[in-house]
Amino acid sequence: MVSLPALAANQGPVHAIWIWKSPSVLAQPDAAEKLRSFCQSSGIAEVYISVSGSTDANGEKHLDQMIGLLHAAHIRVDALFSSTNADEGGAHLEKLLGEVSTIESFNQKHPGERFDGIHLDIEPQQRPENKGSGNLSFLPGLINAYTQVKHQAAKSGLPVGADIQTKLLKGNLDQRKTLLTSLPEFTLMLYELSSPTDGTSANAKISKLNSESQKYLKMAADGLDASQIARISIGLRNVDYGDLLPQMLKDLDEANRASPNYGGWAWYSYNYVLAPQQATSAN
């Protein structure tokens, strides 16, 4: 049986948000209720929440409560995992696959409040050897990691999506095709286009964002059958737009609705919403 949150995720643009450091977030008083209210007021129907492979009983209780409340509000919940080196294979990839298997175990123990999918944030471009424009030597290993996680998650019927950087859409036709057919959904981290203190007007920021998002969606599909490649959501950060972020996200839908592979938007991140002074662009 397909859950209501899973069905909702397939209808129109997805509106999502990342949540890092989930044990500390969910340990706060009324954390699940506050998260649900925030998602409802912000039009968010999908949550990517970081999960530790060593979650204790109390942590599982918090996760179970959160998933139950969000599912009742028709909000999908995906387990979020990060890595800077899973593309290298070996022990690094095995560690990630082991973390994914903990979600299978959690779902078996909590059949009423299951995770709906897996969301990956694998960032090999953070390593020094992968810096530089056009340097995509890590791409085969990254795609292998996606494929291995997809096979692992398929055992429990869990779909997989992933964050990607603009750099990955600048590859050649074969590189883009291999990437964009490896998973059904990606979130493009479209960061650093603006800043709250750059003196640019709101209209100018919106115009620039619309232009850049349309450019990258066209770049992704160039020479490919859009119906055969992944849907791509656009990820934006509070640190780039400040209080303008909700308006910027809303405008993305209007600007890209006609694109056949536009998947919606994602908000980075709930941690910033809770504590702007402490949250940064880091995980």
Characteristic terms for this protein:
globular; 283 residues; disordered N terminus; alpha/beta; 8 strands
Tell me what the structure shows.
The protein has 283 residues and is an alpha/beta fold. It has one domain: Glycosidases (TIM Barrel), CATH 3.20.20.80. Helices cover 44% and strands 18% of the residues. It has helices at 4-9, 22-26, 31-42, 57-72, 90-109, 139-154, 173-180, 202-221, 238-241, 245-256, 270-274; strands at 14-19, 46-50, 76-83, 117-122, 160-165, 185-189, 231-237, 262-268. Strand 5, helix 7 (173-180) and strand 6 (185-189) form a beta-alpha-beta unit. Helix 3 (31-42) runs parallel beside helix 4, helix 5 packs parallel to helix 6 and helix 8 (202-221) packs across helix 10 (245-256). The protein is globular. The protein starts with a helix and ends in a 9-residue tail after the last helix.
Task: Please give the structural blueprint.
Elements: H1 4-9, E1 14-19, H2 22-26, H3 31-42, E2 46-50, H4 57-72, E3 76-83, H5 90-109, E4 117-122, H6 139-154, E5 160-165, H7 173-180, E6 185-189, H8 202-221, E7 231-237, H9 238-241, H10 245-256, E8 262-268, H11 270-274
Helix pairs in contact: 3-4, 5-6, 8-10
